[in-house]
Amino acid sequence: MAERVPFVAGNWKMNFGPAMASQFALALRPQLEALTSRVEIALCPPFISIPAVGQALDGSSIRVGAQDAYYEDSGAFTGEVAAAQLAGLCDYVIIGHSERRQYFGETDVEVFLKAKAVLAHGLRAIVCVGERLPERDAGRTAAVIRGQLWSGLGGLEVSEFERVVVAYEPVWAIGTGRAATPEQAQEVAGLVREELQRMFGPVSRKTRIQYGGSVNQANCATFFRLPDIDGALVGGASLKEQEFVVIVQSCAQVAAGV
Ligand code: 13P
């Protein structure tokens, strides 16, 4: 992990409208700002709250992320927000979250098109992969993850891939309070890095791989210490001010070798 700056992102999911989001970001700002020398940090509010959070964090090193983006630049796509429209408003976009795949029918092909569009507009992408419980139980975890990586990222140029972060989020660990064990997380993160190496060569040594799924203040350090995990994509715990600060602090301490 030494050659990679760890990255902790809070995925707020469908929580916090503009006023609440702004208030929350302002409360986090002074506590997180000092940690940005060791950890890259991003807050990912719903689309409607992105400008408010951007304003609250203006002039700070804390990044703003979106939770999805559509790949067409404009047109008759009711309800969608284009990657082109997010450029200038945020730094990162989460792509292919399992909730998008599960509840909104997002396919691997769309994940690729969205990642491509996000990167084409100068943004960075957090691309999520993860197996469902029946797939794990059937011994198919490695095949599922490899498939998601190849179909979601395989068509990218190396220069585009350099702006990709991969989040390993086992679907069964999301919002369940049942996090992966450190062994399970490292096994898949190691496999992800190996596959990325095959796909993109040596630049994959620099790729950040986050773990996501029931990360909290009690278990986060066990993930941050793993050789192929470089931070976390935090859901529920990122909505609690003190807990999120403790998670980022813990990441900074592990990065500092404390
Ligand atoms: P939880 O941390 O609530 O399990 O959610 C994880 C997640 O989906 C982050 O993207």
Q: Which strand order do you get reading across the main beta sheet? A: 1-2-3-4-5-6-7-8
CATH architecture: Alpha-Beta Barrel
| H/E element sequence | EHEHEHEHHEHHHEHEHEH
Number of domains: 1
The ligands found in this model are: 1,3-dihydroxyacetonephosphate
Share of β-strand residues = 5-15%
The helix content, as a percent range, equals 40-55%
What's the pLDDT, averaged over the residues? 97
CATH superfamily membership, which one? Aldolase class I
Radius of gyration: 17 Å
Could you characterize the architecture of this molecule?
It is a single chain. By secondary structure, the protein is of the alpha/beta class. It has one domain: TIM Barrel (Alpha-Beta Barrel), CATH 3.20.20. It is built from eleven helices and eight strands. The chain has helices at residues 18-33, 50-56, 83-86, 98-104, 108-120, 133-137, 141-153, 158-161, 182-200, 220-224, 241-255; strands spanning 7-11, 40-44, 63-66, 92-95, 124-129, 164-168, 209-212, 231-234. Strands 1-2-3-4-5-6-7-8 form an eight-stranded parallel beta barrel, surrounded by five helices. α1 (18-33) runs parallel beside α11 (241-255). The longest helix is centred in the last third of the chain and has 19 residues, at 182-200. The protein is globular, with a radius of gyration of 17 Å. It starts with 6 loop residues before the first strand and ends with a helix. The mean pLDDT is 97. The structure holds 1,3-dihydroxyacetonephosphate (13P). 1,3-dihydroxyacetonephosphate (13P) is lined by residues 11, 97, 169, 174-175, 212-215, 233-237. 1,3-dihydroxyacetonephosphate binds next to β8.
